[in-house]
Amino acid sequence: MLILSSITKAFGGLQVLHNISLAIPEQRIFGLIGPNGAGKTTLFNIITGLLEPTSGNIEFLGHSLTGLAAHQIARRGIARTFQNIRIFKDMSVIENVMVAMSRQARYSALRVLVPPALLKAQCGERSEARSLLARVALAEKAEILAGSLSYGEQRRLEIARALATRPKFLLLDEPTAGMNGTEKHQLMEDIVKMADGGLSLLIIEHDMRFVMAICQEIAVLNFGQLIAQGTPEQVAQTPGSYTGESLRELL
Hints:
Shape: globular
Order of helices and strands: EEEHEEHEHHHHEHEHEEHH
Number of helices: 10
Oligomer: single chain
Strand order of the largest sheet: 6-7-8-3-9-10
């Protein structure tokens, strides 16, 4: 579904990524792990068009994404969340989701000019937004300000907003940050349901228990290089596959 071919990224004389090649199939939960500064978020930014690779190519469903702007890539079916939460804190929870639905907005000149038609379209979008909030256990908080949510709830709101774009491929950057054990377990179940529903996911995460429990395949970056790839069991048995923690001890 997503093919990265020899992706390299340099900022001046600093080379952050070195010839990264990955192939992620459909309906796959794929983990991307490694220590801080390994280049994981940089790779996310390249996939989603926030950065251009110095060299290499990205293909999504057989079409090159290289050189496309972020909004063009989003329209092709790729959505993401961010390591640093980016929600509209002064808007309600449901309004945050409805903003993300603008690409699918069912507005026309007729509906704008005819109030009943406009109201019907808005009601439909609001209903869809509530359904998305229900998927991340936030339906009961739809009308409150997004800024009043807990950190973990804001994370879930970001996921709902990403789902509102109806992606085929979803990238989650440290989705469990700020979540307690119960919230992590619920998120794990939600991610499995997303994959079962046809969505492919690429996840950056530092919680190794979460990664090992949910990901079907894992790639390990260190100092911008791909040093291991395979099933969780294969990666755990690769010497030096994760700086800072022993994956084998967490199995």
